[in-house]
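Course assignment 3, question 2. Fill in each field.
Student: A.L.
Task: Predict the tertiary structure for the chain below.
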Amino acid sequence: MAAAIEAYLEKHGVNEMVQKALNAVVKQRAANPAAALAAEFTKMAKAAKQEEGASGDTSGDTSGDKPADKPADKPADKPADKPADKPADKPADKPADKPADKPAADAPVVFFVLGGPGAGKGTQCKKIVEEFGYSHLSAGDLLRAEREAGTDQGSMIEEYIKSGKIVPVEVTIKLLLSAIEKDGGKRFLIDGFPRNTNNMSGWQLTVGTKLALAGVLCYEVSEDELEARLLKRGETSGRADDNIETIKKRFNTFKMETLPVVEYYAHQGLCTKIDGSKSVDEVWAATKDFIDSKEAELKQK
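Answer field:
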């Protein structure tokens, strides 16, 4: 048996081919010798096939049968199957999915309220509640309430807030949805959310069409003004995050993580930016105009 194998290898020049391939790989100093060796064998196989095809044009029918079979079989099978299947599947699925992209007409309406720490979001939300009867939910207040409850989740939230970091999206959304369900209202202001793109995508995936996002309010105030406001508030608020070290961290977090969200909604035509450095009454006038215009739009739908 061994003699027969050796005779076969010698007859077909296999030993010579292997040695030639090994020499080529050694010269290349390939990082992956196995892959390089396979590539060399592939080259040899192609060269041998070309030689065989050239010599087979005038000698016999065997080489003439294979090229005739493959082109005849493949075009007949694949083009016939795929065009028949695809039009039937995809157009049938997509129209069925699209209606689910829009909330129901009676779905509760949500407005996101964004701005740097101390921008006046809470003050303006309070005025909207008084004037329009909206329900105001502060992501920060819900997180602080959970933290003060003394639970394990509250302890985790405490560590995030003290370090100026954003609490995991799953925790925040769970608290928000629970508060909305308990309230049972139709108009909600969600203050301080979404704080980053992770919050935003988490909201879209979790909430889906249960709620309708009608618009985004963003109050713009310079860092110097915000710092002065927060330090003043810290004199009486008793909040752990109203200190200069945490304030700086919060500013950085807002710039790096929340501003991209604001720009995304602005690009979508959903965000209205208001100068929050003006007096409370001036800011309120602009805020009221925004809500009035949105309510008019909602009545037309």
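Instructor remarks: The beta strands are 109-115, 135-138, 187-191, 212-220, 271-275. The mean pLDDT is 79.
Grade: pending
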